[in-house]
Amino acid sequence: MTGGEDKFRIIIGFILRTMINILFVIGIVEGFVYSYHFSYKLFADIPYKPAVSDTMNITIEAGNSAKDVADILDSLDIVENKYLILARMYIGKYNSKIKAGTYKLGPAMTPDEICRCICGIQSEETS
């Protein structure tokens, strides 16, 4: 091997290691950004689509779990992410209080309003 080939291998190795490190840092930063946004949406209690006033009748059957309810709400585009509403149900301990019935829900409702509605809990404003 000549000195030029050794320098070339050193330079290529340096470039590859640097690119891998940059991709690793970008992955970590993206993970933190996603975690921040998820946490903010979870605890801020903001509606998914505040400008949309449409509501839908949602039927929850006896025996439906919190995951089943989150899947229904996500499939009807009432919540942004089924994992957000599911986490909200577990954090607020609504998951064990879900009652069967038909409810009028919409994307302009906050996650807490949705949880209180499907649990039959009156909000502070009306009680």
Averaged pLDDT, please? Answer: 90
Looking at the structure, the CATH topology of the largest domain is: Dna Ligase, domain 1
Rg is: 24 Å
The strand count comes to 2
Model description:
It is a single chain. The chain has 127 residues and is mainly α. It has two domains: 1-44; 56-119, Endolytic murein transglycosylase (Dna Ligase, domain 1, 2-Layer Sandwich), CATH 3.30.1490. Helix content is 56%, strand content 8%. The protein is rod-shaped, with a radius of gyration of 24 Å. The termini are far apart.
Give a brief outline of the structure.
The protein is mainly alpha-helical and 127 residues long.
What key phrases describe this protein's structure?
single chain, 127 residues, two-stranded antiparallel sheet, 4 helices, 2 strands, 56% helix, rod-shaped
Helix/strand layout:
Elements: H1 3-44, E1 56-60, H2 66-75, H3 82-91, E2 101-105, H4 111-119
Antiparallel strand pairs: 1-2
Helix pairs in contact: 1-3, 2-3
